[in-house]
Amino acid sequence: MNFVECHEEPIHIPGSIQSFGYLIGIDAETHTITFFSRNISDIFAIESPEKLFERKITDFPESFQSIINSEIYTSLERFTRRKNETYFDKIFINTKEYHFSVFRSEAYIFLEFEEVLINPDKRISNKYDNFYIIDNEKELWDHLLETLTKVVNYDRMMVYKFMMDGSGKVIAEKKNENMESFLGLHYPESDIPKQARDLYMKKRKRIFSNVYADTVPVLSKSPESIDLTFSASRGMSPVHGQYLKNSGAASSFSVSIIIDDHLWGLVTCQNVEPKHIDLEDRVQAGIFTTLAANAYSSFKSKRELNYRLELNEKIAELKTKFLKHHHLLDSLIESKKEIQNLPQADGLAIISDNSIITSGSTPDMESIAKIVQWGLGHTNDRIYVSRSFLKDHGEELNLPETAAGIIFYFIERDKNEMLIWFRKEFDEHINWAGNPEKKVAVFSQNGEEKKMVSPRTSFNIFTENIKGYSTRWNSRSVSAVHAVRDLILETSHKNYNAIKSLNDELKKLNEELDSFSYTISHDLGTPLTVMKLNAQMLLGNLAGDTEKSKRKINTIIEEIDSMAEMMQDVLQLSRAKHSEVQLESLQTASTIYKISENAKMTYGSPASEIIIKECPDVLADKTMLHQVFLNIINNAVKYSSHKDHPKVEIEGKEDGDTVIYRISDNGIGIPQEEKHKMFKIFNRMDNAKKFKGNGIGLSIVHRIMNRIGGNVDFESNEGGTSFILTFKKPYI
After folding, report:
1. What superfamily would CATH give domain 2-9+119-302?
2. Which residues contact 18 (CB under 8 A, 6 or more apart)?
3. Cα 182 to Cα 187: distance, rounded to the nearest angstrom
4. Residue 349 β-bridge partners
5. Looking at domain 579-732, does it have CATH number 3.40.50.300?
6. Domain 579-732 in the same topology as domain 324-421
7. Tell me: the pLDDT tens digits for 380-424?
8. Of 101, 275, 316, 677, which one has the fewest beta carbons inside 10 Å?
9. Structure pTM?
């Protein structure tokens, strides 16, 4: 006995039809009879049905005269010109009126018959264009069900919307008062598996008149099973039949809701008692459903157009801001709140090299760094979207609930430039129509017994708590990210030629500026020295009662010292860029010790505790190494000197082919909003204004470390700052 998964069940070839229908299949080329349902002798006078095989309808005028005389049969070529298009008319067979339908499917032409039923309760008073004056989704689907009630009135009528994963939700309902409501309930994907959804795209109206009635076998001379996909009376799957019985329904009718060429949902109707709907009423139900779907698509398109116009306006405003800056990072930082809000995210992280700038509610810096590394290593997509990032990767990356949903946009991978939008975890509860347990049962199909997953027997509400997910990133969220991407690409392209020209000009200016910096720093040294000596002599010659004058002259001397120090720093910066580099193995301990002792005297902080641990050798230029440690250690002592217990710790460790020094202090720290510009020249933090300095030292360190093949980085919080210097390890 074979086991068949639900999604593998061949529901398009059941080998039988429902008892309300009658079917004859003829060869599309020769028009000879190839198959028929066993019950055709119930309406046609046929003595020996088996004699019909490989004969034509016209060979039996005494049996099929009503078919032969019909307009459909006399114009068969015209009505079957295109595949899978159904045409129907009415004919009398004996004294009863029947619907006669015809369509061509692959190599066969199907002739299908069902009795005409008069519906005395049909009341259609609504105008067709009523659907187009409604611009509210709930009202639209409620109006559709109200309209269909006048055509095909079932005990329960629902609009069922498919979710992205194939599951579904009841979003509108009209039912008898004594019935339990299914509105808002979710149904698992297995209730309407993929092959069933595929059939709903092809055959858009489907009726099961009586799930308890016996089906009628289709007799065929063909060795292949007959594909009954487009047959109105196609027999039902035994699994689906059992599902309807379990739910308390004896009859069902459904109409596909097709939007943008996709199966958006179904109008699905159920009746406690068997119920058959006339073919014309079923067609009319399909027309109303199509009108409602078109109306929904129309007002959805209008809303989408309005959203696009609003998005374009916002992007145009951002574009104006972007073009003010020559550096993308500056543009992104200035507009970070707007960029965060475009896809309706809770937070945004802007990553450029080792800089992380945030906006809104985001994970901590350590978590963001882990997410960045994951993104660089696990996806090659330019844009990556997930609403289950916390569920999928939260444990391995130790993530907080602020990283439940995530969107990456990789601007330039090689430079670690990217934007990351975040959404918090959403406490979601889904009410399912019963616990979708799976049990195996034996079903008979085409005379063969098969093991299949049995449909659910329980439809009591089962609540599932969903963890690790954010709210869904919808199409608008993704469109907003695409708009940001396009803005970055457009502004970068527009600026390319201008920036290239500016870069060429900037190279020349930099060369001239470096030359000027060197000249000015060197040549102005002597005049400043003379000015200082004269000021000191003038100060010594002043009488003792001129205290105010003395203060002014002392101020002049201090400013001269500051100017001299700044010129010396500028000279060092120029040398760091242009002087020849001689890399050699250097010992650092004595240099660090001397600089540390001098720093305590320089900044008047003899109480500073400087702990010097292991100091391994490094590969560097001797003069430049001294300059690096001088600037970093001086800063550590200076910015911790106002603490009650100033403390600096210096330690070096070997790490593979590198040596990493960490110089940590318990000073004022670096504000988060200033971290991205720490190595820019003349940058001074707001909280450092009370300390003497000119903002050049870290620029010198950054330039030197790049020239000697190393790197400088830092970590900082309110408790202090650690600078990390990475050197190459000396050759053995």
Report:
1. GAF domain (3.30.450.40)
2. 208, 209, 210, 213, 215, 216, 233, 234, 235, 236
3. 10
4. 358, 420
5. no
6. no
7. 899 999 999 999 999 999 999 999 999 999 998 888 899 999 999
8. 316
9. 0.62
